[in-house]
Amino acid sequence: MNPVYLGIDGGQSSTTALVGDASGRVIGYGRGGPCNHVEGPEGREKFLAAVRTSLEQACRMAGVEPLFRACCGGFSGGAADKETLFVEAVQAEKYLVTHDALIALAGATAGEPGIIVVAGTGSIAFGRNAAGKTARAGGWGYVFGDEGGGFDLTRQALRAALRWEEGWGPATALHGALLKATGTASANELLHRFYTVAYSRPQIASYAQLVDEVASHGDPIAREILGHAAQQLAALAGAVRRQLFAEGERIPVAYIGGVWRSGLLRERFRQLVELEPGNVVSAPAYGPAAGALIEAYRADNREVTLKDVPEFVK
Questions:
Q1: Domain made up of 111-284: CATH architecture
Q2: SS3 at position 32
């Protein structure tokens, strides 16, 4: 029986499984629900259902039994509380259970050394060099960090709107954009709504797109917020580089997450990061699910070039 390999990206919104054959060709894929939380009511069952659903779909497409030479699962929120459940859900000879930043990096650089800067709801930079040493910067969560992430962008936008509303800040179109998008009468009202359980952190972060929309029409406050976010994300990348790579060493610096939809932020980030000799900013080669599959091959001491990777995981 030819060996098959499994990569799983378990995130806050969905779970993606990729099955690959011995040559590195992707032969099946599947999708399941979110599996980032295993604590709380029905957390364990939801995690197992998400992993098994995505796995069953991928194996059905591949025409293989769910028995793997090696597998890798990368999960939002880390692996500590998920490893036992993952091993329960997946049958394999070798397991690697890790965090989502590692598989995001592996996918972004197609397994090569480099740095990934993740900016979704939160933010973190993660890197790995040719010797396999890893380092990170940021990822402190929305209370103490996550600079440049979507939640932080919305927070800065609301702060600017509140300052104008209270008479101690400059006028900004962010005020009207936020009120229109949320159906609120004032920034103060919106502030109090955001403090309630009616708004989750990802939902608050989703309003970060308003900053880019307002900035694209020339609003100086929105442009300042985006520029500052780019500077902070570039600083995270720089911190990881100094821990892992020699001065002037050529390395890819990739990015992933919803915040990067902003062309203004993305271009400013590129300018700042490429001030460091050797840094080359680029879009990711593949997504995290493909990175998990690459790491599954590596768990079996195999280096492959992925083939036939579906577009939706690129």
A1: 2-Layer Sandwich (3.30)
A2: strand
**22 touches 2 (CB < 8 A):** yes
Strands annotated E in 23-158: 26-32, 67-75, 91-99, 114-119, 123-128, 134-138
CATH tag, 5-110+286-313: 3.30.420.40
**Minimal CA–CA distance to 114: which of 258, 234, 284?**
284
Domain 5-110+286-313 and domain 111-284, same fold? Reply is yes
Q: Enumerate the domain spans of the chain.
A: 5-110+286-313, 111-284
- Rounded Cα distance between 306 and 294, Å, is 8
pLDDT at 252: 97
Chain CA centroid to CA 13, Å: 11
CB-based burial label for 262 (10 Å; 0-12, 13-18, 19+): buried
Its pTM stands at: 0.89
Stretches in the chain below the pLDDT threshold 50: none
Task: State how far the Cα of 104 lies from the Cα of 249, in Å rounded to an integer.
Answer: 22
